[in-house]
Amino acid sequence: GPCAMYRRSALALLLDQYEAQFFRGKPSDFGEDRHLTILMLKAGFRTEYVPDAIAATVVPDSLGPYLRQQLRWARSTFRDTFLALRLLPKLDGYLTLDVIGQNLGPLLLALSSLAALAQLLIGGSVPWWTGLTIAAMTMVRCSVAAVRAREVRFLGFSLHTPINIFLLLPLKAYALCTLGNSDWLSRKVANVPTVGEKQPVILHPSAGRGPASIGG
Questions:
Q1: Are 192 and 207 in contact (CB under 8 A)?
Q2: Mainly resides where (predicted)?
Q3: How far apart, in whole angstroms, are the C-alpha atoms of residue 211 and residue 216?
Q4: Which DSSP string corresponds to 60-110?
């Protein structure tokens, strides 16, 4: 996304593949930064993390746009994981673990949450061990990320766990069931008349709340 830079000569070699993304026969153009990185790795290029880089981006400022963003990201994660499976043995060990964790982690967390809920409703006992296990695994992952990035504040991501369980897990389940949907969910398309014809124009998500930003 806004935090990545690509060598122009490398991008030129992959431009045709990059612009022709399809999933189940339908055009797919979200998750493009992840897709481009996978294409780069498949072509033999390498990526490098620069911890001192500073970049600015725009983030959702309310719950609705945030959930739509997460739904879009979940779909792109599941899609591009299939594309990246053959690359996993060649990647850095931590990156391979992270890719596996992004896909198996939500599944294991969902199963643990359902088991805990069943224990509470059927057995009438509080699932302390399940809760402690989830908390421990969360702290382990956040600690590894904090050490590798040399950022203590990454430990704060552990507070994201309740949001993950109660909001994002159901969202990811829905994303997995609707992988064929390529709607961006955050853009509005309007037909603006030009000389003798109508041309689709992408409007900024904030259109209607102020001056609209229009892009081709």
A1: no
A2: membrane
A3: 16
A4: --SHHHHHHHHHHHHHHHHHHHHHHGGGGGGS-HHHHHHHHHHHHHHHHHH
Q: What is the pLDDT of residues 83-134, one digit of tens each?
A: 777 777 777 777 777 777 777 888 888 888 888 888 889 988 888 888 888 8
Token pair 């956040």 in the structure block, residue? 142
CA torsion angle 33 34 38 39 (round to 10): -30
CB 52 within 8 A of CB 150: no
Long-range contacts of 43-50 (CB under 8 A, 24+ apart): 43/10, 43/13, 43/14, 45/7, 45/10
Map out the domains of the chain as residue ranges. Answer: 8-185, 186-216
Q: Which two tokens stand for residue 174?
A: 């829905």
> What pTM does this model have?
0.69
Q: Exposure of 182 by Cβ count < 10 A (0-12 exposed, 13-18 middle, 19+ buried)?
A: buried
Interatomic CA distance for residues 189 and 200, integer angstroms: 6
